[in-house]
Specification:
single chain; alpha/beta; Alkaline Phosphatase, subunit A; 2 domains; eight-stranded mixed sheet; six-stranded mixed sheet
């Protein structure tokens, strides 16, 4: 094997997981909701076998799929970006990362205020687009930082770019990251810069930056790096893994930019892994409960996929999966949804087999490392022999 492109369609869930109710989710299915939109047109994903995956026949199964397909259940105790990506990379998290439905305690906020020299506004679970419009004017007037969370394990800091320049906001995030350890070790500290003229007229910018907790032990990224192979991160992958195990990275400004940067890597002669996150599915459409927008984004990805496939050599593979769900039709919350995820495997060497339903995202890491002959301690199992 020479090159493997692992693409995470962020939040593209494949149906309610058996334990979804424990996470407060009922009758959720991200792909099913997208299928209700007339903006969904995914002939290439269907040809690969997406509709052949267990429970996704509403997408339209095909008689002779071009790829190997599978449905994966998450083994970790969470439904957030960090835990989902860690499990894809081989780390199963038996304990959930801490969340703060009532806001952060004083033992967190006091040292944060002292270190930054700024006050704190909000301190509760909020929609990111709402909180800046509710507290934006006060922030601009006082310079106090808007600190908020969600159902995920996140500490988010929002600030107007003319009040707190992004680089200064990033430094405040680094301060928070040092504080948020141990029992308060949230998955991500997130910088949320925004702009606007006041009176609730604020919008977030693309200068978001995530500061993640380091994975608790080595991942498949470390396996590639330690073997002297390329371990390339596109999008927020670098942040999710706190840079661990990554030899090269590039940030993106959304799905379209991420796909363009992926094609640029496909034009390069490297050996190893290119790990890509396409964030717009989750950030712009899932959380905002925009069914048509989500469907249109899937349609855009589907139209782009052949461009990548054309650049593959006989020793290259593409894998497509997700890290959790975020059903755009689910109105009980605007948070992630506990779902299965799809797993598509494409390439000239791939046997078009249906692997059914499996029970750990880490099967992806186990299979990838097996394909490259790399050692990895993981609860996942390899399907190398079945797919080649």
């Amino acid at each position: 094997m020479k090159r493997l492109f692992l693409i995470v369609l962020d939040s593209c869930g494949a149906g309610e997981a058996p334990d979804a109710a424990k996470f407060g989710d009922y009758n959720v299915n991200t792909l099913r909701s997208c299928a209700t939109s007339d903006r969904l047109c995914i002939p290439n994903l269907r040809a690969a076998g997406l509709g052949n995956i267990d429970g996704l026949d509403f997408l339209g199964p095909v008689e002779h799929p071009t790829g190997a397909v599978c449905k994966l259940q998450e083994a970790s105790a969470g439904k957030d970006t960090t835990i989902g990506h860690w499990e894809i990379a081989g780390v199963v998290s038996s304990d959930p990362l801490p969340t703060y439905p009532n806001g952060f305690p004083e033992e967190v906020l006091k040292p944060f205020r002292e270190a930054t020299g700024r006050g704190v506004l909000a301190n509760a679970p909020w929609s990111g687009t709402e909180v800046i419009n509710v507290y934006g004017d006060e922030h601009v007037k006082t310079g106090d930082l808007i600190v908020y969370t969600s159902a995920d394990s996140v500490f988010q800091i929002a600030a107007h770019e003319e009040v707190v320049p992004p680089e200064q906001l990033y430094e405040y995030c680094r301060i928070a990251r040092k504080i948020l350890r141990g029992k308060h070790g949230v998955g991500r500290v997130i910088a949320r810069p925004f702009v606007g003229s006041g009176n609730g007229n604020y919008t977030r910018t693309s200068n978001r930056h995530d500061f993640s907790l380091e994975p608790p032990h080595k991942t498949m990224l470390d396996a590639f790096k330690d073997a002297g192979l390329d371990s390339i991160a596109v999008g927020k992958i670098y942040d999710i893994f706190a840079g661990e195990g990554i030899t090269e990275h590039v940030y993106t400004k959304g799905n379209t930019d991420g796909m363009e940067k992926t094609l640029a890597y496909a034009d390069r002669d490297f050996r190893g892994l290119c790990f890509i996150n396409l964030v717009d599915f989750d950030m712009l459409y899932g959380h905002r409960r925009d069914i048509d927008g989500y469907a249109a984004a899937l349609t855009e990805f589907d139209g782009w996929l052949p461009k990548l496939m054309e650049k593959l050599g006989p020793e290259d593979l593409v894998m497509i999966t997700a890290d959790h769900g975020c059903d755009p039709a689910y109105t009980a919350t605007t948070d992630h949804t506990r779902e299965y995820v799809p797993w598509l495997i494409l390439g000239q060497q791939i046997r078009p087999v249906n692997l059914g339903t499996q029970f750990c995202f880490a099967d992806i890491a186990a299979t990838i490392c097996d394909l490259f002959g790399l050692p990895l301690e993981t609860e996942g199992k390899s399907f190398k022999d079945q797919i080649l």
